[in-house]
Design goal:
GO molecular function: glycosyltransferase activity
Low-confidence stretches: none
Helix content: 40-55%
Subunit structure: Homodimer. Within each dimer, one monomer is responsible for RNA recognition and catalysis, while the other monomer binds to the replacement base PreQ1.
Strand content: 15-25%
CATH superfamily of the largest domain: Queuine tRNA-ribosyltransferase-like
Cofactor: Zn(2+)
Shape: globular
Strand order of the largest sheet: 4-5-6-10-11-12-13-14
EC number: 2.4.2.29
Order of helices and strands: EEEEHEHHHEHEEEHEHEHEHEHEHEEHHH
Distance between the termini: 42 Å
Pfam families: TGT
Number of domains: 2
Number of helices: 14
Structural class: alpha/beta
Mean pLDDT: 95
Length: 376
């Protein structure tokens, strides 16, 4: 159940009650594709940096170790020793990202494994079955993510198929949740809005899927090459047509500024690989913008990554030491930066929630963006 606690303009402050605990929104979900955050980050670390939700990938876990294996071991929560909410994506994004390895038909998608080339088939029912085996808190509907460069006719056909697939996902999840050996009988299904950068297609699709009365709704197919301005334009158009009394999830977004802009437009769930991926490449997020610790100017810098930050890296280690670790290709350097970046994102969301609670989000957003961009 989703509680809408407060609004400020279109911005929402909410609370989603799940079988694995309460999610305070707006929330950033930390991306652990193969049931782990890249950068040697454990579930104990995730709790220490105040992670609410961990996100894992249906396609990757289906290939390795296999969702049947995970089910036999008690589900994804037991497998990775995590007792808080988990969201699993549907495998639909791989339909987009593995364009050279797949063939889309009405029944579903024929893939080739990117690991060993073996043939795989995944449709709405298979995606729901895999996610049911994983036992995640929130399962995403199986969809196609059409590239925004596709012509209108293709995007319209694709969105119509995504709607048909969503209805199949809903029916299959209902069936699976009633089976005696289901890992999580309270699994929630989120539908996904698609339509490229075509406002009319997006709005029509949002209205259609809203009628299915699902526990939550995502906006997919953004942050895949279009400009930030195009993304904000689509959010302005679409979010008002999704149910305000349900969570709204912007998939794969994004930078801290993207998040602030999207919260203002009514989004309350986010995920992105940026904090962990950039951390592994020496980039640290701070309230004054992003810094690259490979830069020579940090060689003798004895300060923490950010003064006043309470993360495990900043509480003990200097920029100079972390830079040395990165240059020496020591795993600890990547690990410390990933921890810092995830802590930064999680606590940015905490600050956003507090600002919404206190009715000062508009002023907070303006000041935060000014701080983050003044050195760029």
């Amino acid at each position: 159940m989703y509680e809408l606690l407060k609004t400020e303009g279109k911005a929402k402050r909410g609370r989603l009650h799940t079988v694995h605990g309460v999610i305070e929104t707006p929330v950033f979900m930390n991306v652990g594709t193969a049931a782990a955050i890249k950068g040697a980050v454990s579930t104990e670390d995730l709790k220490e940096i105040d992670t609410q939700v961990q996100l894992s990938n249906t396609y990757h876990l289906h290939l390795r170790p296999g969702d049947e294996v995970v089910k036999k071991l008690g589900g994804l929560h037991k497998f990775m020793v995590w007792d808080r909410p988990i969201l699993t994506d549907s495998g639909g994004f791989q339909v987009f990202s593995l364009a050279g390895l797949r063939k889309i038909k009405e029944e579903g998608v024929h893939f080739q494994s990117h690991i060993d080339g073996r043939k795989i088939f995944m449709g709405p029912e298979e995606s729901m079955q895999i996610q049911s085996n994983l036992g995640s808190t929130i399962a995403m509907a199986f969809d196609e993510c059409p590239a925004s460069v596709h012509e209108r006719a293709y995007i319209e056909q694709s969105v119509e198929r995504t709607t048909r697939w969503l209805k199949r996902c809903k029916a299959e999840m209902s069936r699976l949740n009633d089976l005696p050996d289901t890992v999580n009988k309270e699994q929630l299904l989120f539908g996904i809005n698609q339509g490229g950068v075509l406002e009319d297609v997006r709005i029509a699709h949002a209205k259609e899927i809203a009628e299915l009365d699902l526990p939550g709704y995502a906006i997919g197919g953004l942050a895949v090459g279009e400009s930030h301005e195009e993304m904000y334009r689509i959010l302005d158009a679409v979010v008002p047509h999704l149910p305000q009394n349900k969570p709204t999830y912007l998939m794969g977004v994004g930078t801290p500024i993207n998040i602030l802009e999207a919260v203002e437009r009514g989004v309350d769930f986010f995920d992105c690989v940026y904090p962990s991926r950039n951390g592994r490449h020496g980039h640290a997020y701070t309230n004054q913008g992003k810094i690259n610790l490979f830069n020579a100017k940090f060689e003798l810098d004895a300060r923490p990554i950010e003064e006043g930050c309470g993360c495990p890296a900043c509480s003990k280690y200097s920029r100079a030491y972390i830079r040395h670790l990165l240059k020496a290709k020591e795993m600890l350097g990547m690990r410390l930066l990933v921890l810092h970046n995830l802590y930064f994102y999680n606590h940015l969301m905490e600050d956003i929630r507090l600002a919404l609670d206190e009715g000062r989000f508009t002023e907070f957003k303006k000041r935060k963006i000014e701080e983050m961009t003044k050195n760029t």
